[in-house]
Known about the structure:
Order of helices and strands: EHEEEEEEHH
Shape: elongated
Helix content: 10-25%
Largest sheet: 5 strands, antiparallel
Structural class: alpha+beta
Number of domains: 2
Strand content: 35-45%
Amino acid sequence: MKIDVAALKNAPGKLFAYSFTIAPGYLQTEGDTTLLTPLAVDLEAMYCEGKVVAGGSLRAKVKMTCSRCLRQFSSDFYEEFEDEIPLEQETEIDLARVIAELFLTALPLKPLCKEGCRGLCPACGTDLNEKQCDCPAEDMDPRLAVLKKFYAQS
């Protein structure tokens, strides 16, 4: 999707509305994140003092891997955004590239399948969401054992 800059410049301050989708194959996601549906974009843009001011929302269904339990899960992605695009000699703006950057930066760094995900046991690898393992609850670094004794005596 491209915006004609001349049309925006001819009507400074006037909002232009755009709605379009970006195919999952166009966006190269990081890690284990995959778009399950096209990215729906609703956008309003206007020309103001040498730049295009744009705002809107992004919607899609995404598949990610939980950073705690390593399960894959699908989630509804929704993000509102505002951006300013400085103009120099451009005659058009490729919105797909701008939106791709906004989408990638809005993805969570550590996605969670659910807010209370307990993750994996660091000792045996059991998924603590499914069952509790028999590993000792307190797994202390042996180098810190001296400090534990010191605080126990105080």
